[in-house]
Amino acid sequence: MGIARVVFVALVFSLAWAGGAGETLFRATPPCDFPAIYNFGDSNSDTGGISAVFGPIPPPYGESFFRRPAGRASDGRLLIDFIAEHLGLPYLSSYLDSIGSNYRHGANFATGGSTIRRQNESIFENGLSPFSLDIQTAHFNQFKERTSELYHQDKNPFDVNKLPRPREFSRALYTFDIGQNDLTAGFRKLSAVQLEAAILDIVNQFAMAITHLYQLGARAFWIHNTGPIGCLPAAAFYIQNPKPGFLDKYGCIRDQNNMAVEFNRQLKTRVEKLRQELPRAALIYVDIYTAKYHLIRNAKYYGFMDPWKICCGHHEKNISVWCGQRTIINDTEIFGGSCGSPTTYISWDGVHYTQAANHWIANTILNGSFSDPPKPIDHACLKHKM
């Protein structure tokens, strides 16, 4: 057996052992029994916010599970959906979606294109959202205050049944998946030196949001770092004849991944500091980067095809038609349709993951294998011992 194979097997074994050990360690401890989830993030966890504000995501999004577009940038469920399933809670309604929403067990403040800090560039031209993290936490504050007012008025029992109980806000799980768009915006308008210098401010603004929620009563935080941005197929659409060293041995853009790693390093350090600043908080840092990169490196081992293949959209010979879009080229209509078998793909549309990949990631991280401290999500309310 080659050295690479030995290392790979050892890694898989160690991850499986860590997950099993973590679950065994906490088996004797009652789970947290979270009554609700409040999520903050970007398109990786948006369940309908950006669709409610700017118009619905078109077919074939949602085809694998919801059988229709469901406000999610995937063919089906996102990681936040699998988190809700794992905790026995319903899927989260978007705070920005007023039609048919039920907030009894939480709300989703994430919107596609969101960043941690506000952007000075044109948000619409560059695919960014006006709902940066500080706006999302302001929405939560408004949601919490309005919920309390309506609940205590108790004029309409039907409406009250769609609202969380005020006493349950402090017992809920607060999840975060945001930061990717801050880096991608930086890649467009900043030099590498400037972007690296900006990371400290981005991370500090992330910490300010968590501190604000803590002051509002939040106690259990599940915080994802950012993924391997340089491994997104869309990152390589227009790259031709890259210089030696530009790509790593798996085809990912090395500099972009290095910047994501630096962001994650600083984020983890800041979370460690927050544990001292917020003494009653339980803060779990989740290494999504390593989980996703492991899947991309070993796609075939886990039953997926080439991770650079995209299920939805048409991208070839300098022609790009994004998923669900149509265009006319040389009097011929080209549709960015679905591959028809997304279960074998990691990338859905070049930027977002398929439901199958999201499911794999959920199964990999929720047992605590990639968490610091290594706690399964259903024990994330337990405070870290300093």
Automatic annotation (TrEMBL):
Is Glycoprotein a UniProt keyword of this protein? Answer: yes
Give the source's domain of life in one word.
Eukaryota
What are the protein's UniProt keywords?
A: Glycoprotein, Hydrolase, Signal
Signal peptide limits: 1-22
Pfam families, alphabetically?
Lipase_GDSL (PF00657)
Which Gene3D superfamilies does the entry mention?
SGNH hydrolase
The UniProt entry's sequence similarity note says: Belongs to the 'GDSL' lipolytic enzyme family.
According to UniProt, the name of this protein is: GDSL esterase/lipase
